[in-house]
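Retry 2 of 3 after timeout on previous attempt. Resubmitting structure tokens to design endpoint.
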């Protein structure tokens, strides 16, 4: 043990004199600081946009409530009043546009995950929701695992390069520098010396990683004490990932090749695990389970919409009343009722199509999950986004909440539409309460 401590002390002094090592650590640390501020900037930008639409929503609803108290003896005030109390304004002059926002979790700035790919808020009215929100294309599922240049990106893709730079010449530098024979003549075995060097470098990288993670929490205003479990999970993931790459580089060093060849082998492994393997996995999955095109949803909606308008009103009512018997009063002629019933029929058709697409996506994700261990960078990034609650599952929960909110809104509006009633001030205040929840 005494010999090992002596080796570690000597190697520490030796590394301290290395200008190259200092430059590498400085570059990596600078990249980490940039990643921290980039993530913070993105989250702040998203938060600002969400705050803006929420403020706009509140202002518009305040005007809606104010309109119910106007003197309706003038044509202008009467028009505002009718818009405020009429639930059938949607579609021509919209009664109201509602917004739901996906608030940023505490660690979103450290790992943006898929918050930079999916919308963080949706604006919609009570008509067909599927048409209003399903307008984007599904992206490459493996590409979705990488994300922007945040702190998780630095740890996932740049940390292995730092380890390669620190490990590649552990053995070759002694041999090429002519000091290998001196080391072999020491009472301590060469393997002990090399493993001591590995251990020291491993602790250095762990220390840099822990420092950057701590700075990430502090600079983004995240309380470590309040999020101690999440901090521990991040630190564990980074430490395990570091250990993986240290093990890979130790294996390359054990081949006892030249420093140039060891460096090339290390970079080759990095390219395979971070770029080539993910691309091959994605190509294989794409060939076996092609990704559905979301434009098919739009195409389905258009076909159903054309069919609704070209058919007799009873065609829509028969479908609508079958699923919504509480609104069936035998009326198959009222245009407003037909108009809103047609949107429900559109939603049901689009949702059936969307469910089929989602099953296909889930099938692809399951296949990717099966082989993701061959792409440790993507696997670790996905794990960090899961810890940070910024993965695809988080977005799907947000979408489900949005659909549930839309269902509640639709019930409020449809109760009025099919009863041929208007909103009162109390009704609007209840809607305002729903917005605040």
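Retry 2 succeeded. Sequence:
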């Amino acid at each position: 043990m005494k010999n090992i401590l002596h080796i570690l002390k000597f190697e520490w002094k030796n590394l301290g004199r290395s200008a190259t090592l200092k430059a590498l650590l400085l570059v990596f640390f600078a990249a980490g600081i940039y990643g921290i501020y980039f993530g913070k900037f993105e989250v702040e930008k998203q938060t600002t946009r969400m705050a803006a639409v929420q403020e706009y929503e509140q202002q518009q609803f305040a005007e809606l409530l104010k309109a119910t108290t106007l003197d309706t003896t003038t044509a202008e005030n009467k028009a505002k009043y009718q818009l405020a109390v009429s639930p059938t304004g949607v579609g021509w002059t919209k009664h109201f546009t509602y917004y739901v926002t996906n608030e940023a979790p505490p660690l979103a700035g450290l790992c943006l995950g898929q918050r930079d790919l999916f919308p963080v808020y949706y604006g919609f009215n009570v008509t067909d929701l599927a048409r209003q929100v399903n307008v984007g294309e599904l992206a490459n599922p493996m590409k979705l695992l990488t994300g922007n240049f945040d702190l998780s990106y630095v740890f996932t893709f740049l940390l292995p390069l730092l380890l390669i730079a620190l490990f590649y010449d552990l053995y070759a530098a002694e041999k090429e520098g002519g000091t290998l024979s001196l080391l072999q003549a020491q009472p301590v075995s060469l393997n002990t010396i090399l493993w001591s060097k590995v251990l020291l470098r491993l602790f250095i990288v762990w220390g840099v990683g822990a420092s950057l993670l701590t700075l990430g929490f502090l600079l983004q205003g995240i309380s470590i004490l309040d999020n101690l479990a999440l901090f521990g999970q991040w630190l564990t993931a980074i430490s395990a990932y570091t250990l993986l790459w240290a093990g890979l580089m130790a294996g390359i060093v054990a081949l006892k090749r030249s420093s140039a060849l060891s460096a090339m082998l290390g970079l080759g492994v990095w390219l395979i695990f971070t770029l080539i393997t993910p691309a091959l996995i994605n190509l294989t999955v794409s060939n076996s389970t092609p990704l559905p095109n979301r434009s098919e949803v739009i195409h389905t909606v258009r076909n159903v919409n054309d069919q609704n308008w070209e058919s007799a009103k009873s065609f829509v009512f028969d479908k609508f009343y079958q699923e919504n018997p509480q609104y069936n009063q035998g009326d198959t002629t009222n245009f407003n009722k037909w108009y809103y019933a047609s949107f429900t029929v559109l939603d049901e058709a689009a949702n059936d199509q969307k469910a089929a697409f989602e099953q296909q996506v889930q099938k692809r994700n399951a296949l990717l999950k099966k082989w993701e261990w061959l792409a440790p960078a993507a696997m670790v990034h996905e794990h960090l986004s899961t810890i940070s609650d910024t993965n695809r599952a988080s977005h799907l929960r947000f979408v489900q909440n949005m659909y549930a909110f839309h269902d509640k809104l639709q019930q409020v509006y449809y109760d009025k539409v099919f009863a041929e009633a208007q909103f009162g001030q109390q009704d609007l205040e209840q809607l305002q309460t729903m917005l605040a929840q």
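Attempt log closed. The beta strands are 98-101, 121-124.
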